[in-house]
Amino acid sequence: MNPLQLFDTESSTFTYLLFIPGQTAAVIIDPVARHWERDLQQLDRLGLSLTYVLETHAHADHVTSAGKLCQITGAKSGAPTGCGIGPADLQLNDGDRIVFAPGEELYVIHTPGHTAGSMSYLWRDNVFTGDALLIDGCGRTDFQSGSADALYTSITTKLFTLSEDTKVWPAHDYKGRSVSTIGWEKTHNARLAGCNRTDFIALMKNLHLPKPRLLDIAVPANENLGLSHDA
Amino acid sequence: MNPLQLFDTESSTFTYLLFIPGQTAAVIIDPVARHWERDLQQLDRLGLSLTYVLETHAHADHVTSAGKLCQITGAKSGAPTGCGIGPADLQLNDGDRIVFAPGEELYVIHTPGHTAGSMSYLWRDNVFTGDALLIDGCGRTDFQSGSADALYTSITTKLFTLSEDTKVWPAHDYKGRSVSTIGWEKTHNARLAGCNRTDFIALMKNLHLPKPRLLDIAVPANENLGLSHDA
């Protein structure tokens, strides 16, 4: 069962819509503010009812529409404990399960490193990895409570131990790619395949990436689910 | 079961990759020339083996990579009879079935109107409608053997008679939308909902659209599956 993958061309962010044919319940992961109407229209066209809106972390490169989507639809918001997203209905912890339709569970996997609170979500044979594991890469670890050491542990002990057939759906891609598998990333990922912890930490330390343009705006906004503090 | 939907930003074309978790067989519908490497990489990352590459029609707005993908992977090409795509391995007719994996069948539905040969493909609860039925619209009918009369018949008697839950995956969208359902289109489609044949023909006649920029290049190229005539 594949999710529907939606793309924001401004921030190269993927939003995911999870649903099962013949059932109305749907989950959205990592929605983007400027696409809230598109996402509501998707739900309408597919005859779906939104049950949960989940964040993988407090994003630094775009603003979420989670708060707005939940206000309009009545869905519950969920975000990782420790990401500072105080208003989320569910403060999620490693090992939590979210039942969004009969027999349909999302498993919450704490995968810190890009941020201290970052979560991945496992649904059937799909894992939504946020900015932890990307296709042939990984999220940066040089700001917002990032830790290369923690990210190495998360990827090698929590994500690479999933079934090799598990599809990897990241929060971003900048090269037109859309999906990978755990098996492919274990053997090919440019930053992790055949790379020990010491090498990985050194590699991440030497990336010297520029500060994200929206960091000072996006993080505080996302800590309030994208809602204005007046709302 | 959703297909993987890939997008070409130049021509706003959707390419679809169909596969079933745990099986290796895959089908690609309407691939775009400049993305042939991306599409091969997708197959590699997912551990998939391409069995068929199908065209919904001879496109006028982009060039296909069907020939190239088939040469490299050994997959069979399939195209509608009557679209002038002579080199295709399978010349498809209304009612044909393509078995691409055990128990997995694509049903070929002749839906003329955008072009005389245009086909739609039904797989499980998904229909790939090419340029016949679009989200909240339909393909143009003013060139390349188009016929508004034929398109009205195709959509109202062949597509709108599918189950209302059937997901509609078009060949294009120009407004960031990705998928719809037969039920939604029957009741909301701006050109077809509540519109009789006479009104529809008059509406399509009065669109006065500009000639597609690539028409004279793309159609001959696509009639040869995107392969150079020297190849």
Give an overview in words.
The structure is a homodimer of 231-residue chains. The first copy, chain A, is α/β, with parallel strands linked by helices. Chain A has a single domain (4-210), classed as Ribonuclease Z/Hydroxyacylglutathione hydrolase-like (Metallo-beta-lactamase, Chain A, 4-Layer Sandwich). Helix content of chain A is 24%, strand content 27%. Chain A has six helices and 14 strands. The first copy, chain A, has helices at residues 36-46, 66-73, 148-159, 182-188, 197-205, 215-222; strands at residues 4-8, 13-19, 25-29, 49-54, 76-80, 90-92, 97-101, 104-110, 119-123, 126-130, 133-134, 137-138, 167-170, 180-181. In chain A, the strands form three sheets. In chain A, strands 1-2-3-4-5-6 form a six-stranded mixed sheet, covered by helices on one side. Chain A has a six-stranded mixed sheet with strand order 7-8-9-10-13-14. The first copy, chain A, has a two-stranded antiparallel sheet with strand order 11-12. In chain A, helix 3 (148-159) crosses helix 5 (197-205). The longest helix of chain A has 12 residues, at 148-159. The radius of gyration of chain A is 17 Å and the shape is globular. Chain A starts with a strand and ends in a 9-residue tail after the last helix. Chain A binds chain B through residues 1-7, 9, 21-22, 35, 38, 41-42, 44-47, 124-125, 135, 165, 167, 176-181, 183-184, and chain B through 1-7, 9, 21-22, 35, 38, 41-42, 44-47, 124-125, 135, 165, 167, 176-181, 183-184. Chains A, B: InterPro entries: Metallo-B-lactamas, Mito_Persulfide_Diox, POD-like_MBL-fold, RibonucZ/Hydroxyglut_hydro. Chains A, B: Pfam families: Lactamase_B. Chains A, B: Keywords: Hydrolase, Metal-binding. Chains A, B: It comes from Glaciimonas immobilis. Chains A, B: Residues 12-172 form the Metallo-beta-lactamase domain.
